[in-house]
Amino acid sequence: MKLTKIVSFRLPLIVCLLTCGLLYCFSYFIERWFEKLSVHQNVSELTSVISSIERELTYYSQDDNRDEFFQSLLLILTGHHRLFVYIVDDSGKILYRTRGPNLSIALKSADFEEIITKHTTTVSNVNQSSYRIAASRVITDQNKQYTTIVAVGRDLQIEFIRRLRKGLKILIGISCILALIGSFISIYLTQKPINRLIKKIERINLKNLNHRISTSSVPVKYVSLVRAFNKMLNRMEDVFQRQRNFTADIAHEMRTPITNLTTQTQIVLSNARTTEEYREILYSNLEEYERMSQMISDMLFLAQADNRQLVPNLVDINLHNMMVMICDYFEPLADEKAIKFELEGECCHILGDRMMLARAISNILSNAIRYTPENGIIKITLAQVSENRVKAVISNPGKKIDSRHLPHLFDRFYRVDESRHRNGNNTSGTGIGLAIVKSIIDTHKGNITVESDEQSTRFIINLPTAIQPLFNIKVTD
Fold it and tell me: Is the pLDDT of residue 248 over 90?
């Protein structure tokens, strides 16, 4: 909420500053454009008048056409507002001047000769008024030299630009205020549905994780956000549900051996026993302790996998030879049910942790033996999928697993039915075994899937030949 308030004030302020900046730049360019336009108009007007006067002076004769010259000057100046002319000869005698400012002071200016030679103009203040002045010098046929000074008043233009600047400042101020108010209103209207959404989200806690926000109650532009949030809630609810189930299952699994130990101890203490009876009870208790120790070790292994703390000790592994060794290890257990192993295919060597991969394959084969009927055949197929990946398929005949159970087989303590409880001889019956398998395969940057039909259940393992992260690699025979 504090962040929302900060944004509510900061964003309008930023919009206001941006508006001020843009309008100031726009006003600056408008003002400069008008100034350049007025200068251009003044220069054009002065140049035109001087050119006309120079032309008349060229034909001017003080004796013959004096009156005609003055009439021509009047015609030239007609239509020019606030234009002033000052003409003197080489002796300083005034030939013609208009009423207005005393332009003779321009003759004393230091840059007067530069104005004539370079045909430029200058700005001069006379009697608290500003004028743009141009000058020229003409020599007539009678070798008479005349200097012409022409000035145009700038007061109206200066006043116009001053008022324009003042108007633009007022416009900038009003625009900034409107932008600030508009930003506040816009943010308020925009945040109103967000605030409602935040209140709905704040009401969701561990007790009502099953609550979902309806997409029909939010604006269209927030529908995708609500859907993403609902999906996140689904994942969170699933994680918490699995965590609750996991806690309940581990408590149940730990309670069974503890109950057995307590019961056996109470029975032993109820009456005097012989040394041999005590020995049998201790052996029975030892089995329960070993089972609990194995379960705790498995849980610690899964905790390391969850926290990405499993670091495989990479060595060169011949996957075919490993499968042969594991099958030989399980052969006595398979012989009890007259089960046979069939190993097919070849693949290249891979880099992996020998102990981890052996444990994963052993867990799968242990499950396969448990659920394969007597006289069945467990098939192991190896294949080279590509240059960088190998595939191992372990299939066993037996009862089909319903498709709704397949995605959860690698969850901890998940059982397809009640018949799949721990049998007392193998800790993998707790439902941790396949979770360990998945953790090991994931640590090796591979993936494992399971398929099941009326003919068989198949565990499909895909492994890379090498793992990208830098671990210590040992090459063995």
Answer: no
pLDDT (tens digit, 9 = 90+) per residue, 375-429? 999 999 999 988 889 999 999 998 888 888 888 888 877 766 544 444 444 434 5
Contacts of 292 (CB under 8 A, 6+ apart): 254, 257, 258
Q: Note the helical H segments in 119-208.
A: 155-202
CA distance 99 to 408: 106
User: Does position 340 have pLDDT exceeding 90, yes or no?
Assistant: yes
φ, ψ (nearest 5 deg) of residue 312: -70, 140
**DSSP one-letter string for 330-371:** HHHHHHTTT-EEEEE-----EEEEHHHHHHHHHHHHHHHHHH
Domains for the chain: give ranges and CATH numbers.
2-162 (3.30.450), 220-306 (1.10.287.130), 314-474 (3.30.565.10)
* Alpha-carbon torsion (199, 200, 202, 203), positive or negative: positive
What's the length of the chain? 477
β-sheet bridge partners, residue 464: 389
Q: Hey, what amino acid is at 367?
A: N
Q: Is the Cβ–Cβ distance between 36 and 28 less than 8 Å?
A: no
Of 307, 409, 320, the closest CA to residue 367 belongs to 409
What 3-state DSSP class applies to 293?
A: helix
Q: Nearest Cα to 325, choosing from 351, 362, 369?
A: 362
Name the DSSP letter for residue 422. -
Residue 378: count other Cβ atoms within 10 Å of its Cβ.
23
CA 403 to chain centre: 38
CA distance 307 to 288: 29
Are residues 65 and 59 in contact, defined by beta-carbon separation less than 8 angstroms? yes
Residue 391: name the closest of 339, 340, 465, 452 by CA.
465
Q: Is 392 helix (H, G, I), strand (E, B) or coil?
A: strand
Q: Which helix (H) or strand (E) covers residue 285, if one does?
A: helix 275-306
Are 76 and 53 contacting, i.e. CB atoms less than 8 angstroms apart? yes
Helices (H) and strands (E) in the chain, counts: 9, 13
Q: Determine the Cα–Cα distance for residues 364 and 355; give it in Å rounded to an integer.
A: 14
Residue 239 banded pLDDT, cuts 50, 70, 90: confident
- Distance, CA of 327 to chain centre: 51
Amino acid letter, residue 368? A
What is the dihedral sign for C-alpha 468, 469, 475, 477? negative
The answer to whether the Cα torsion of 103, 104, 106, 107 is positive or negative is positive
pTM, to two decimals:
0.52
Residues 137-146, mean pLDDT to the nearest whole number:
81
